Amino acid sequence: MKKVIVLASLMLFAFAGVAQAAETLKLLTWKGYAPKALIDKFEKETGIKVEATYSNNEEMIAKLRATRGAGFDLAQPSQDRISSVQAKFKIYQPMDYSKIDADLFIPSMLDAVKKNTLVKGKSHAVPFCWGTSGLVVNSAKAPGASSYKDLLNEKYKGRVTYRLKRPTLIAMGFALGYNPFELYSDPKAYKMMLDKIEKTLIAAKPLVNNYYANGDAALASIRSEEVYVAMTWESIGWKAHADNKAIDYIAPKEGALGWIDTFAIPAKAENVDAAYKWINFILKPENAAYFSSQENVPTASKGANKFIKPEVAANFERSFPQEAIDNIKWYPPVPAKLESMEGKTLDRIKAAN
Amino acid sequence: MKGSRIVFWLFLAPVLVWLLLLIVLPHMDLLIMSFRGENDYGDPVWTLQNYWNFFREPIYWLTFVRTALYSVITTALTLVIGLPVSFHIAKIARHKLQSTLSLLLLLPFWVSELVRIYGWMILLRESGVLNFFMLKLGIIKTPIEMLYNDATMIMGLVYTSMLFMVVPLISVMESLDDSLIEAAYDLGASRLVIWWDIIIPHCKPGISSGCIVVFMLALGNYLTPNLMGGKNSLWFTEQIYNQFIASFNWSQGSAFGFLLLLLSSLIIWVGLKLSRQKLGEVAS
């Protein structure tokens, strides 16, 4: 009997060893950023298996910090959350741009990300995709809502939703007439703005249907018409638009908040070559276009536009006329001190009655 | 004799390694981290600041008080519902039915907590199943929002922890001699007196262990308050998460974690003192 147990456990270990043998790329990314079809295609072309772990900015940083940059070969943080984190925790390694096919990228976007992720003279990321947060409005129920101020509008009592996270604070800053990004370098003035925002959002609490926890929850509330005005991403608005033409994404008057998600290689990545291969693979126009059509998210890939599904391209043209694009407020890198201040503000808003 | 000794240690070793590597060591690391902080120049130093912050900032300890209070309410409600349920299963139901009933209680736990909570959300939301039927039947005119308030959250917590109350209760009730209850009836005791003087004193160890488990589960729950709770439902675990994940302040988060451990142990100790019991009796 004992022998059988020993034998069985040995076999178990042996199997675990075999399973590890094939070459893999451990990707730490966002939901939807590694579509099944592209993973299969990549495996066929290179023989490398992709193991994707889904996460968000904050959890990505926490995961990599816990292992000091080990456990994953490639991560996808937003560009504004790299430099201060890198300076403090050193969880990424500098990007070797000679291994990247620069022709695949929209040059201005590649340069902007290089500049924003510069730590000690070295850049740490390349852009993958971008998007904005703005308003998703049900125009049948809330005609004319087009400003972040409409999130505070008495008319829509109980029909408003937003996330209790930093984008909402930034949007409220703009709504109240500040420019939060200019205040990044002045913590005192930033604190004063946060205090004003805190008062405003606490006073506006009765208007809120619910602070949504994730994109799926927001989409469910909007689709079921429990909510008329939401602050969220365009992809959610466009998904709802496909079922109900009255619902659409609107770039607010104050400017949509623009983010760029990137590729960065963790400090102790094991399979760096596979990471570069994946970057060069997914930014090929046809692959990037497949991702964009699937997820309604534009990429940094040059020339992907002509492969994108027409209805997805139409979404983009409808929601982003030229002046809305010019008005996008891109997130600059976040200085380290601000996040704990914001964290306290968010806690106080959530706890207030 | 000697051979069995070796086998004993051989089988115990994985458990000890598991305890040491996955429970003791990480906790030591967290404990050390909770005493770390930065001085004004950003250099790491030893400090009590993280613990001091908890008592100095009302937002932190008020959240804890709120969490503890709601956990106590949850525990009390679970007990009130759990007692008759387990009495029915242990004493009234026919023998064949007993195992079926226990199985029915267990059945929802084959699905993960997340899925169960989403199930409740689909039932209760404004455009949800319950509202749909009530509208169809003409009971209400406009749909009611039943999610996102404290009552729903407590219901969710009671639902998720019910099993952990009922199981210890059933096991102590099974050891209760039926003739005691029959004798009490013969002597003319009312139902209330029977419950108060016979059943509850007999079940005390089961009640205590059930209450401890449910209280700890409610206090340490993260999913239910976060998903079903309202706009004001900041739970203490959420604050720990926020410190770790959103503010990158691991030292503060670890300090909160240890405070949660200490304060909840304190509450249980007070509870045991008040009901004049010892932890050893309850655990056995």
Fold topology:
The complex is a heterodimer of chains A (353) and B (284).
Chain A: H1 2-21, E1 24-29, H2 36-46, E2 49-54, H3 57-66, E3 74-75, H4 83-89, E4 92-93, H5 107-116, E5 126-138, E6 160-162, H6 166-175, H7 180-183, H8 187-203, E7 208-211, H9 215-223, E8 229-233, H10 234-243, E9 247-250, E10 257-263, E11 265-266, H11 272-282, H12 285-295, H13 310-319, H14 322-326, E12 329-330, H15 336-351
Parallel strand pairs in A: 1-2, 1-3, 6-7, 6-8, 10-12
Antiparallel strand pairs in A: 4-11, 5-8, 5-9, 5-10
Chain B: H1 2-34, E1 36-38, E2 44-46, H2 49-56, H3 58-92, H4 95-106, H5 113-124, H6 129-136, H7 150-174, H8 178-186, H9 191-219, H10 223-228, H11 236-246, H12 250-274, H13 279-283
Antiparallel strand pairs in B: 1-2
List keywords for this structure.
heterodimer; A: 353 residues; alpha/beta; D-Maltodextrin-Binding Protein, domain 2; 2 domains; 3-stranded parallel β-sheet; globular; B: 284 residues; MetI-like fold; 77% helix
How would you characterize the overall build of this protein?
The complex is a heterodimer of chains A (353) and B (284). In chain A, helix 8 (187-203) packs parallel to helix 15 (336-351) and helix 9 (215-223) packs parallel to helix 10. By secondary structure, chain A is of the alpha/beta class. Chain A contains 15 helices and twelve strands. Chain A is globular and about 55 Å long. Helices cover 46% and strands 16% of the residues of chain A. Chain B has 13 helices and two strands. Chain B has helices at residues 2-34, 49-56, 58-92, 95-106, 113-124, 129-136, 150-174, 178-186, 191-219, 223-228, 236-246, 250-274, 279-283, and strands at residues 36-38, 44-46. In chain B, strands 1-2 form a two-stranded antiparallel sheet. In chain B, strand 1 (36-38) and strand 2 form a beta hairpin. In chain B, helix 2 (49-56) packs across helix 12 (250-274) and helix 3 (58-92) crosses helix 7. The model of chain B has no long low-confidence stretch (mean pLDDT 88). Chain A binds chain B through residues 2, 58-59, 61-62, 65, 85, 158, 165, 205, 208-211, 213, 220, 224-226, 336, 339-340, 342-344, 346-348, 350-353, and chain B through 7, 59, 62-63, 125-127, 145, 147-148, 226-227, 230-234, 239, 242-250.
